[in-house]
Specification:
about 325 residues; alpha+beta; Structural Genomics Hypothetical 15.5 Kd Protein In mrcA-pckA Intergenic Region, Chain A; Pseudouridine synthase; 3 domains; eleven-stranded mixed β-sheet; four-stranded antiparallel β-sheet; about 25% helix; about 30% strand; elongated
Length: about 325
């Protein structure tokens, strides 16, 4: 069912604007790209006649009527999967993603994803890009656990994406790594891109690429391993894993960027964990609608905690 028609009168100071620019400004909650699609699809009338050209200039006093088209159903399948929701309101939801869950359906992972679970869990989705689906603003690797925010509508999606781009989102990861740290803390800033030798991997040793910045600090020394915090200033794919490996601190259990620890007991702890020891522990941002500051924290899951305790026991035994 189409939305209710909305009527706007062009003000004296708005004359000469493009129709898509005018309507985006007055409608609120829709992206310009979405408004452009609506205009091209015949959902907008100006001065009593249908207009399909987004570039059409509006004149003072003209009446613009916008009838939002119905949100298209998605081909994605809703699945009733276990999901830990740590915050939810009419505009967004924050989940504590378990390790092993893919965020978005893709080839080889069409089912069992976070998106499939959210489609079943959320009853008030208003759609993203004209489809009834959740808005994935950022992602966490399949085998990384922790906090992730998801938008319920276009306006929230756009605002959160802008906050991430402006580095206004607080993100702290907790990790277990193997090796000797170069110091108690630091900040690594590198170019970042696809590994020239393996396109499935990412690398900080590239000639050209986007900038990637990670702040890090050692929280606990555990013999040949450490527990550390990583604070993201940018959000590149695999960023923490790549940057820690570049520092000589590959994450415990990381099958892509790690290396087998020399200590056989540490090696067994990583094998038992079965994934990279990385958890998105803290997430903070300004709510796009209310302006309130949202600060959330998630303790590491049991498998991470068990690996940490095993490393502590080993360090105590070797003291």
């Amino acid at each position: 069912m189409a939305g209710r028609p909305q009527r706007f009168v062009v003000g004296a100071d708005q004359g000469g604007q493009r129709l898509d620019v005018f309507l985006t400004a007055v409608a609120g909650g829709e992206s310009r790209a979405q408004i452009t699609r609506h205009i091209a699809g015949g959902a907008v009338e100006v001065a009593g006649g249908c207009v399909t050209a987004p570039s059409r200039k509006v004149r003072p006093g003209e009446v613009v009527v916008w009838t939002p088209p119905p949100v298209a159903t998605t081909e994605l399948v809703a699945e009733d999967l276990p999901l830990v929701v740590v915050h939810e309101d009419p505009y967004l939801v924050v989940v504590d993603k378990p390790a092993g869950m893919v965020v978005h359906p893709a080839a080889g992972h069409e089912r069992g994803t976070l998106v499939n679970a959210l489609l079943a869990r959320l009853s008030d989705l208003r759609g993203i890009g004209g489809e009834l689906r959740p808005g994935i603003v950022h992602r966490i690797d399949k085998d990384t656990s922790g906090l992730l925010v998801v938008a319920k509508d276009d306006a929230t999606m756009i605002a959160l994406a802008a906050a991430f781009k402006a580095h206004d989102v607080h993100r702290v990861y907790e990790a277990l790594a193997v090796g000797r740290p170069p110091g108690p803390s630091g900040r690594i800033e590198t170019p970042y891109g696809r590994d020239p030798h393996d396109r499935k991997k990412f690398s900080s040793r590239v000639r050209e690429g986007k900038k990637a910045i990670t702040g890090w600090s050692i929280v606990e020394r555990l013999g040949d391993a450490v527990r550390l915090e990583a604070r993201l200033e940018t959000g590149r794919t695999h960023q923490v894993r790549v940057h820690m490996a570049a520092l000589g601190l590959p994450l415990l259990g990381d099958p892509v960027y790690g290396r087998p620890p020399r200590d056989p007991v540490v090696r067994e702890i990583g094998r038992t964990l079965g994934r990279q020891a990385l958890h998105a522990r803290e997430l903070g941002f300004v709510h796009p609608k209310t302006g309130a500051r949202i600060e959330l924290r998630s303790p590491p899951p049991p498998d991470f905690a068990a690996a940490l305790e095993a490393l502590r026991a080993l360090a105590r035994g070797g003291a």
